[in-house]
Amino acid sequence: MNQAAIKLSKTERRLLNDFQRDLPLDPRPFNHIAEQLGVTESEVIEMLRRLKAGGLVTRVGPVFTANRVGVSTLAAAAVEPSEIVEIAGMINRYPEVNHNYEREHKFNLWFVVTASTSVQLRHVIEDIELKTGLEVLVLPMLRDYYIDLGFPIEWIDQVEH
Amino acid sequence: MISDFQLSGLTRLNTEKLSSQQLQTLLIGEIEAGLPLVPKPYAEIADRLGATESQVIDALEELKADGCIKRFGIIVRHRELGYLANAMVVWDVPDQSVNETGELFGHAPFVTLCYRRPRRLPKWPYNLFTMIHGVDRNHVMKQVDRLRELVPDSELPSEILFSGRRFKQRGARYSSTFLNSETPETRISSEIKPDLFT
Lengths: 161, 198
What we know:
The complex is a heterodimer. In chain A, 34% of the residues lie in helices and 21% in strands. Chain A is an alpha+beta fold. Chain A folds into two domains: 10-53, no CATH class; 71-139, Alpha-Beta Plaits (2-Layer Sandwich). The longest helix of chain A has 15 residues, at 118-132. The two termini of chain B are 15 Å apart. The radius of gyration of chain B is 21 Å and the shape is elongated. Chain B has helices at residues 4-9, 20-31, 41-49, 53-65, 98-106, 137-148, 174-179, and strands at residues 69-76, 85-91, 111-116, 128-134, 158-169. In chain B, helix 2 packs across helix 4. Chain B is of the alpha+beta class. Chains A and B meet through helix 2, helix 3, strand 1, strand 2 and helix 4 of A and helix 3, helix 4, strand 1, helix 5 and strand 3 of B. Strand 3 of chain A pairs antiparallel with strand 5 of chain B, so a sheet runs across the interface.
């Protein structure tokens, strides 16, 4: 269990939980946060710098909408567990593959292929099938139901088990 | 990670010749790694680009309005906050109710992705994919139970695919996408979205 989360102050927790979206496009956005938290602007900036240095915050900024250009798909293959490292390495060599994960299932290798056209995408997948001798499940997104409102944090010392 | 475009951004630009499209493109390169943590971050970015603070703010408003930026704020790392388990949970939902179920699941606070995908019968019967983060496996499984309570059919077939080793995860390189649409390998896909946080 990560100890860092437990050591956060109440203000830091509010900062992390309440300002994941709609940072004001106002010349002094951190001052706006400071007013909400009842602290000074420089304290907010200091907290953010510390949280970033400590790895709890990646950045203060945008999450971009993916796939505005090009086409991509999730793909999966059922690989012999003893061969998974080797097969994953073969798949990683394709520059069109930008994620490649092991998951606990018969279909245990999951990767994302991105290309500029659907024809190119199909060629990459066919080539992977040819080289690995595996059948690849092609699972493109048909519809996105997710609304990104940030991630409400249930602080780990408050989670019941 | 410095793209060609970020290097070119180091050259100060003539503001008068900068179209709003160009500014947006440059701005994406400047902000993808986050705002500078200073009292007037937009002014500092404007300074780097040779634009004005209000031009930067307007361009960001446009990027948000047209959906290019889907969220703008503090991006937290789940793993560092103690959310050590993540699972792809897949569901076999009848086609006539998949949209309704997708909307319900997609709004659940602990779900960080919710997509409809095709079935590949007979090997793959699942058509709804959700990504769930939890402190540990039990926590993830409790979240799955909470999703199940949202739908009338409590027997909805599903499987939980916990994540194992990460063999590849390329970081976001949006700016080069906008600059050079001929290089697909520089595009980002957030199909496995939580990884954007790591």
